[in-house]
Amino acid sequence: MNRDVSTRKRISTRTLLLWGLAVTLVLAGVVSFYASGHPDGLEFVAEKLGFDSTAAGHAGGDSPVADYGVRGVENSRLSGGLAGLIGVLLVGIVMTGLVALLRRRTPAKRD
Amino acid sequence: MPDGFLDATTSLATAATAVAGVGLSLRGARRELSDFAAPLAGLVAVFVFAAQMLNFPVGAGTSGHLLGGTLAAVLVGPATATLCLTVVLLIQALAFADGGLSALGTNVTLMALVGVWAGYAVFLLARRVLPRRVASVPVAAAVGAFVSVPAAALTFTGLYAVGGAAPIDLSSLATAMLGWHSLIGLGEAAITFLAVGAITATRPDLVHGARALAGVQDLEIREGVRA
């Protein structure tokens, strides 16, 4: 184990971001297929205590990627993987845009 | 959380809380988004989105997934983390029909506000107790992450007590929510430890929660040399 990080050669920000993005794409596009299909903590508790029945259907249920599947794609592995990648793209665009907007309105200052 | 769990009044109140919290975070994030921290914010948001898809089994027929609030707060700062989580929840609700639209304010309040700020507060406390080393940062982040999940679950229980749609026994709700979400918190802690550990090991100067310990001066010199 390397304990002293300061003496090690640091990777560039670009390399770090590309690695992070690669891991993220694999998680969303491939690993997501193997996610547990069991209800999550809240859904489970709601079922057990019997208040899940008040849950309403989703108003956005007819979205082309509703419930993490691309409508029209039969293969569930492909459908779910594509939906994951589309989600990463959407989140990435919105967050990057927001950050750019926030930074443009801020005078450049270094601290 | 889907629509229909909480009544309209409570949903309106959490929506107002969410708007106020996100508004304050928009101001706070400007201070956090320094030149070298900005690119990480986009990565953190997409990573949290991807990780939230990955339900891990927690035991008898239930599962959990990362909330990611503490992970994001330690990496990019709590205000920016609130924005990251809000964007993730927004896309989940609007595009993927995951999380109700009238429940969006509640989901933002629980995960983007409570999950982020409770986790970050515990992280700061843990970091103060641990040795002043960069290696302490992932450990403190894991402690914050662990606490953040039951904190969000307990907040949900409180909201349900005020405006729950079904008459259920609140103490059994609190017990069940806390019990399961403490287990899920262990998963949250493990993933947060690994993710924060990976980045602090390579570029501690990029990590918001490690910058105070990481000797940022190194980076200033390095940038100067390159230019």
UniProtKB/TrEMBL annotation, chain A:
<keyword id="KW-1133">Transmembrane helix</keyword>
<dbReference type="InterPro" id="IPR025937">
    <property type="entry name" value="PDGLE_dom"/>
</dbReference>
<keyword id="KW-0812">Transmembrane</keyword>
<keyword id="KW-1003">Cell membrane</keyword>
<dbReference type="GO" id="GO:0005886">
    <property type="term" value="C:plasma membrane"/>
</dbReference>
<keyword id="KW-0472">Membrane</keyword>
<feature type="transmembrane region" description="Helical">
    <location>
        <begin position="82"/>
        <end position="102"/>
    </location>
</feature>
<dbReference type="Pfam" id="PF13190">
    <property type="entry name" value="PDGLE"/>
</dbReference>
<feature type="transmembrane region" description="Helical">
    <location>
        <begin position="16"/>
        <end position="35"/>
    </location>
</feature>
<feature type="domain" description="PDGLE">
    <location>
        <begin position="14"/>
        <end position="104"/>
    </location>
</feature>
<protein>
    <submittedName>
        <fullName>Putative ABC-type cobalt transport system,permease component</fullName>
    </submittedName>
</protein>
